[in-house]
Every structure is written in structure tokens, then in C-alpha cells.
Amino acid sequence: MGINYLDLINVVDNVPQDFVFNDLYKFLLPDDPRPHGFILPEIVKQIPWTPEFLISGESKTVQLSCPPATESCNAAIQSLVDLLIDRKIFSNIHNDRHSEMNKILGARFDVQIERFPKSLFGIASRGAHLTGYTMTSSGEMKFWIPRRSPHLFTYPNKLDTTVAGGVKASQSPFSCVVDESDEEASLDRAYVTEHAKSVGVLTYVTVSERRGGLYQSDVLYVYDLEMPPDMVPKPNDDEVAEFVLMGIEEVKMAMQGGEFKDNCNLVMIDFFIRHGILTPENERDYVEICQRLHRRLPVPIAG
Q: What sign does the dihedral 270-274-279-280 (CA atoms) show?
């Protein structure tokens, strides 16, 4: 029996295309009617909102009410985040510590929020994934696959894409890939900069039981890197336990066996499509699979 790619996609992109978000609160930025996130009603009740946020139960909105400028909006959001961390209300703000800044995707000016509390507001995430592969002397394609460290807060011991990371506010997706290639895999920065290829973007909407039923949109920028046979990635931080060289069938079996971090399955499926491994001739659900990897998001992606 072959691998069921739609099942793997459904684990991650598990919010129906026709889902109506009317039961959730819309997170609104100043002078912008477009919702930049969707918040569970129970979360709205638990958050100790500061005066800069206007809550309407009638219209189900959380409106950031301050001058529509970067400095004022970022200050208001950070003040609320500081309060959430200090009061230790939510478990997903783990270890009661601050995290790196992320952009609010699609905002009309530069608005940022810390990574950990972002999911509470249903704000879209940006990630960058690089698939490193090599060709053997016999012409076989193989992938460098890392195993995540056992102590990680999310998906410990799971397989991952060669290099992956959340895109910080200070980074472009490509600079994220270059930085993570050095920090996670000890890959030469100059080689990655010259040879990594931007090959598209994946989008999905997920409701995470692991995060208490929070809704979140995700954008994954994907890159390919063909590596010479003598280039071997090595763990360079405490996030990766080891790198293993795996063939196409080995990767498929690991995907089918639930060994990969969930959204990494989408990255590998996309790679298989682009490189002719997954085709209309060998996959009856080919068209739906291609569509599902690039769904329209319910939040803005441009200002």
C-alpha cells in the first residue's frame, strides 16, 4: 500500500477550506478592517487586556486602538505581552521567558510581536525550510535528514527538514535559511548563499490541540540545496541530535510511519512534486495534493 499524502496534509492543514471564523474574535490593527488573527473566546476572557485594546463582544473584535504607527503599536503589544509573561497565565508562553520578535504578516506598517504569545492571537507564522540533498555516483538522490534533540519543547526526537527555522522580524526568509544552515548544520555560509535556491512557498491553516485548540495560519518559504557528496552536515547547537543520509524510499517510509515533524511532511511532498518523484501517473490525488499545499489564508499576506 502506497503512502497517503492527503492524510499527511490533513494532519497540518486541518481547518476546512469553507470554515467560517464567526465564532472567533478578529484581531484588528489600527485603521485596518482586515483581521490579522483569530482568537478563541475563552482566550479573550483570560487575557488581562490593557487600555490600548478595545474588546467588542457584539462584533467579536479585539481592536488595537493607538496611532497607526510602528512605535506606538509595537509598544502597546509589548506591554501586553510583558503582562502575560509576568502573570504566567498561558502554558504556551513556556518557561515564562521572552522570545524573538516576529513580524505581523500583511500589516500596512512594521508591527511585531514575540514568537511565543503570537499563537494566542492567531497571528500567522513565517518559517523557512531548506531541503539538502546529494546525488550518489550511481545517480541516486539522497537527503540529509536531522533528528531533533530529545529535550526540545516541540516534537522531540522527530525527523525534520535539513535546515528549518522561524523567520525573525530582523530576517528575510533567505537570511533565515543561511543563518540556520550555519547554526544547526555547520554548513558553509558562502556555499549556502551561492547555491540555495528559492523554490516557492507553502501555506496552510491549522487548529492545534497541542496548543489548546488555537487557530493559526502558516507560511513556509522553501529552498533546495544540492550538496556535493563530501559535504556532510554536523549538529552545531543543541537542537539537532544527528544527521542521517536517507534515500527516497526511506524518507517515504519515515513519513508514513509518523517519524517526521508534521509540517515537514508538506515540505517533502512539495519537493517530491517539483522533482518528478510524485506525478499524476503514480498518484491519483495529485491535483488535490498540489492545491492543498497552497491554500488561500484567512489573514492578509501583504500590506
A: positive
pTM (2 d.p.): 0.95
SS3 track for 258-303: CCECHHHHHHHHHHHHHCCCCCCCCCCCHHHHHHHCECCCCCCCCC
Task: Kindly report the CATH number that applies to the domain delimited by 5-15+125-292.
Answer: 3.90.79.10
Q: What is the pLDDT, as a whole number, of residue 280? A: 98
Cα 250 to Cα 253: distance, rounded to the nearest angstrom: 5
> What is residue 159's DSSP assignment?
B
Query: Which ranges in the chain are annotated with CATH 3.90.79.10?
Result: 5-15+125-292
Cell numbers at 133, concatenated: 540533498
Q: 131-153, pLDDT tens digit by residue?
A: 999 999 999 999 999 999 999 88
Give per-residue pLDDT as tens, 151-176. Answer: 988 899 999 999 999 999 999 999 99
